[in-house]
Amino acid sequence: MFAALIVARLREAASEAGVLGTKSWISPDEKTDAEELPLAKAAEKVLASMHAVLQKTMRSRDVELGRLEKEKERPRRESVGEEGKEDDEMLKHLRLTKAAEVKVVRNARDLVNPPDLDGFRAMAVEMTTDSDEGRKPDELGVLKTGMGEITGANHQT
After folding, report:
1. Closest among 57, 37, 38, 54 to 2, alpha carbons compared
2. N or C: which end of the chain has fewer CB within 10 A?
3. Which domain does 52 fall in, by range?
4. Do 43 and 105 have their domain in common?
5. Are 117 and 44 contacting, i.e. CB atoms less than 8 angstroms apart?
6. pLDDT digits (tens, 9 = 90+) for 104-125
7. Total number of domains constituting the chain
8. DSSP three-state, residue 7
9. Same domain, 10 and 86
10. What is the β-pairing status of strands 125-128 and 149-152?
């Protein structure tokens, strides 16, 4: 889903930036704000769309799981013997599989007009190459490798 959306959104963002006719869609040097680059604009929309579709898919799945739980409480008369139990298990498996499928078509509107775009705004990052061997690992336990460190624009290094 990401690959398909990013192709369409990148072309759209490159067109809006007026770089569609340039070689490799390279933005002019005077466009220095990283958040305004076509790839950043495209990624914002793609991530917002994917988030909306996956959230709605998860809610739909939860509703179906609730239905399955209610049905589990009522015994089915057709379930007789070992074959009946196997049929019930297969039916349950098929319903769970169907419930977990990503609901792309049902949520096509969110792909065209992504909701909550503000929650996915691009953020500038800067690259530093200070060599400070006394650094401690970050909250994820990652140590600086000497190749540089990427930090958020609002984060002090």
Report:
1. 54
2. C
3. 2-122
4. yes
5. yes
6. 888 899 999 999 899 999 887 7
7. 2
8. helix
9. yes
10. antiparallel
